[in-house]
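Page 42, continued from yesterday. The earlier attempt failed because a stray header line got pasted into the input along with the sequence. Redoing it now with the clean sequence only.
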Amino acid sequence: MVVYSFYIFDRHAECIYTKQWTPRPTSSSNTNGDASGRPRTSRLTAQDDAKLIFGTVFSLRNMVRKLGGPDDNFISFRTGSYKLHYYETPTNLKFVMVTDTKTNNLRIVLHQIYVSLYVEYVVKNPLSPVEHPGGVGVANEAFEMGLDRFISGGL
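This time it went through. Structure tokens are written below.
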């Protein structure tokens, strides 16, 4: 299993944590070129990438709730290049992990990251802010090391 990236969004739609291990594969179908015939290479900033991920999750979550009812939950979706996994906490924190397409559902894994890493190292840390205004991120070395160990340990 390949983990491409991981995101945490707060209840105000701000990306408070992002980590990228390997770049996501690009679609081979996008061969549009510019006026000179050279292929366009557009790299997104980390902030723009997080906004796109949140927009996708927000739209799909709302669509699932409207089509299926309030008890249905959005869990994941798959494209030809990657699979996006989603977990929302009772406090409206959103955990998103992007992996390769062969990965099974990681909802339980995202819950474990929330309970055993985020709550232990960020929520229980008296120096960590309760709110993250303006996208101030999770700056906690213990959380980052624990997440790296968790991901590199094969989940």
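Notes: The radius of gyration is 17 Å.
Reminder to self: strip header lines before submitting.
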